[in-house]
Amino acid sequence: MPATNIPSILQVTPDPAPGRDAHQEAAAALRFWEALEYLTPQPPPDVKVDDSVWEVRTDAELPWNDSRKQAILTRQHGPDWRFQLFAGIVDGTCYVEQARAALGAGPIDMEEQPPPKPAACVVIGTNGAGMVTGQVFVSSLPWAMYCVEQGSGNDAPLRFGGFFGLGGLEERMRNAVADLMVERKLLAPPPAPGAPKPEGPLDPSLRPLTMEDVSAIVEFVFDAGGWRPARQMTWRVRGSKAPKEDEKVAPDDPLNSFYAEDLARIGARHAAGDTGSGLRAYLAGEDGTERIDLDQDIGALAGGVAPARLPPACWPGKHPLVLAQQFAVNTLVRELADGAGLFAVNGPPGTGKTTMLKDIVAAVVVRRADVLVTFDYPVKAFGDDAGIEDYGYKAWQLDPRLRGFGIVVASANNGAVENITKELPGVKEISDEVALDYFSSVADSVAAPPKAKRRGPRRERWGLIAAVLGSKTRRREFVNPFWFVGMSPASSPDDVALAAHPLRLRSLPSLFKNPNGPENWQPDHGAMPWQAARERYRAARQRVDALTAEAATLADTIDSFRLARQARSAAAGEIVALSALAASRQRAVDAAAVAVIEAEQRIALVARRDGASAAHATAEAGLAEAILACPAGAPEAMARQHDAAKATLARLREEHERHLRHPPGFLAQLFRTQRSQRWNARDAAFEEQLREAGTRCDDAAAALALLQAGAARVAALRLSQAPLAAACAQADAAARQAGL
Questions:
Q1: Separation CA 420–CA 550 (nearest Å)
Q2: pLDDT tens across 444-493, in order?
Q3: In the listed set 257, 272, 290, which residue is the last one of a domain according to the structure?
Q4: Model confidence, pTM
Q5: Are the beta carbons of 463 and 440 closer than 8 angstroms?
Q6: C or N terminus of the chain, fewer CB within 10 Å?
Q7: Number of folded domains in the chain?
Q8: Three-state SS string across 48-116, please?
């Protein structure tokens, strides 16, 4: 896999035209975050004998060849060990300087800050004898540095895609390293597809890992990654206790970012506009809504905790939420009712954030129960076979309506998350008056110590509602007691006795075992029949809804009573104030009556003034409209046009009559002589001119009539203006005199 074949993976896509908008800013934030993940590689472990970490330069210094190191390992971990060899270690200052040079950035003064930590580019796993296990990890640093250098000299954003994922460079390099190990007799060839995995002793032709092997692997990784550091540091090897066969799990990647691959997927989804509202809110970075101080805005607080805002469920704890906690829960459940979004609650330790979280859990449980109860039979909640590849058991697809109700508690503080997860199922977290049992025997079994054979004598957990997950070890520690304990047949008298013990560990499937046959099935799960459980839940849900509605009505009534009492108190205060100012009740009444009369008079004056003003304004508007329709002099001008039109019509009639007195003779008309044709043409012209003159005369007469009517209207409106103006002036003077 030569480096010259790598650049085809990197396709730089230019950003859209510059311009500030939320979508582009979020995309830039994702690219920056992704660059940080790729360019902040994981350092190798510090060299420390107490931690079984050594530097190695020669084959003799490798711990499987060094009896002194083996003695230390035996003292620290016992007789069985395993190793991780960290190679291709790049000096931190080296790759920072090379990256800054490629990006055109100037040098920085390393004396002003801690030096960058070194980065290992290859990790090779071996057993205690130095035989490789096939576990090889390749850092993304060479690829990231290659991308940085390829992006040098242009303004396009850096792109790091192509390393992770199916068919990515990481997978191809790891496969190629495995082939190289097979070639160098470090690893047995993989079995053919479909062939069983070989068992028994290792191939005798295989040999332990040497420094020369490591050098070959490191050289290949740098060549395939497309970048080579200017200098490397001494390699390191870390020893640790080898797990037992039943405790073996694939180790986590010690080199690469936990987030880089997810960030690439999020970036692609974001570019396609396929992101949820919660992620969009997280990436937006915009100012939130204006802060509301609930200590001051009592109305907002009261509205937020009104009964109508209450979720249909609460945590059955020994104490209810305090006011601020209930406000936060109500607001969160309401704002995130569609299942998407972002909601923040801030508070120092001990302020009840975990207590509030329990009510959120209760709300989510009830939302899912609302969906569950819609299924006539439990089996209808499952669909087709999921068809999981290379999985020997059937797995049925869950109805989509039942998905999305899980809760993940995540934190940078693993201890805090573990405490919350362990606290939720505890019997101490629920009221003594509430009898809850949701597979409590399984919950106690899951929480039992790793080597325990029985549960404790007292029930410590009310239900199987939370589990400590995260790492592969924690997931295995949960899955084994949750699903597998108690399912194997007893193979010894002790196992038989333990299987009959009432406090034996119970897995979920063990509660459904049926040793007595279908006719005498007496399962241990304790669950109600489905139809009875549905009816019970529906009755409880209806009862809650009815109580909530009743409480909301009562709250509205109380609020109305409170408002009425406030109004009455305010009215009483006003009466006291008026009584204190009045010499006597009668004078107060008289003064009030006078005030009423004056007010009525003032109202009448205002109404009179406004009415007069409106009438005057209407008249003025009408006059202006009439003047616009009939300007001064327009009737006289139109009369002159009419007279001219009549004169023209009379003249044409007279000329036409003279023309008619001298017609051509009969024969001239019969034979259409030239004189006859000229006479007829002139007669037709007279007819046309007479029609046009008549039309003009009629139009002028009609226009004259309209203008004369308009002039009469203008004159009438002018006459009406004077009394209206006088009335308006009188009303205005009266209002001013009254102080209005």
A1: 35
A2: 999 888 888 888 889 899 999 998 888 778 888 899 899 888 777 766 77
A3: 257
A4: 0.61
A5: yes
A6: C
A7: 3
A8: EHHHCEEEECCHHHCHHHCHHHHHHHHHHHCCCEEEEEEEEEECHHHHHHHHHHHHCCCCCCHHHCCCC
